[in-house]
Amino acid sequence: MDEESSVIPYDSIRLIKKYLHKQQGLSVVDLGCAKGYFLFGLFDDPDLSFHLMEGIDLWEEEDKTPKNFDLNSEYNSDAECRQEGKSQFISNRKDIKTFICLTSNSYDLIILSKILHFYPHDQIINILKQCQSLLTTDGIIYVKMANEKHPYSDQKDKTVFSEKFKSELKQDFEIIHLNNSDIHAEFIIK
Ligand SMILES: C[S@@+](CC[C@H](N)C(=O)[O-])C[C@H]1O[C@@H](n2cnc3c(N)ncnc32)[C@H](O)[C@@H]1O
What's 3-189's CATH class? Predict the structure, then answer.
């Protein structure tokens, strides 16, 4: 397995596909996308096509600059295929909260993978509500975040998924999938 295929979240992509209301002409944004592996995995899925793929990250570390989002980079072995769809990809160096306030796009899929637990508890529901307002009809939000079993070495600014969190979530969202069995909770809401 090469570096790229070992980090593309194929299981999550399989899960998301079950809940997408359509498979063609999709719009997606990955908030906190890092090197964009989630988007590349989605792009390469033969069942799906996209008219918009946005990746948002602060790219604070040197090795995570937007150049790694470049379709010709060493991380993207199937560059030829991606070249064809190049215009669909947009990378944006922004804070996710700034982005969701400013964007005028709407999305069939919003991805928040391993980023929400960096926010204080009270901000997370607000971020999710703002994301909800950006969804197309039948659009979904995919979230992966640390749960109470996560062995953090650094406790700063960490919020974990809990039963209390789940109850709060239910007040504003329909939970259409939840798996809380590992060190992360993975859920899909709308
Ligand atoms: C733990 S990584 C997760 C990366 C990827 N989503 C995944 O599932 O593997 C968190 C990412 O979120 C980015 N990030 C953290 N806070 C952010 C913020 N406020 N706005 C945008 N990106 C942020 C970091 O730069 C990092 O790339």
Answer: alpha beta
Of 169, 147, 144, the closest CA to residue 158 belongs to 147
Residue 32 alpha carbon to ligand 1 centre in Å: 4
The two tokens of residue 80 are: 């030829």
Question: Would you kindly state where each structural domain of the chain is located, as residue ranges?
Answer: 3-189
**Is there an atom of ligand 1 within 6 Å of 154 CB?**
no
Residue-level pLDDT, tens digit, the chain, 190 residues: 454 456 899 999 999 999 999 999 999 999 998 878 899 899 889 999 988 888 888 866 555 544 445 544 444 433 333 444 444 667 777 889 999 999 999 999 999 999 998 898 889 999 999 999 999 999 999 999 999 898 876 666 678 999 999 999 999 999 999 999 889 999 999 9
Its pTM stands at 0.88
Q: Under a CB-based contact definition with an 8 Å cutoff, are residues 130 and 98 in contact? A: no
Residue 123 Cβ contacting ligand 1 at under 6 Å = no
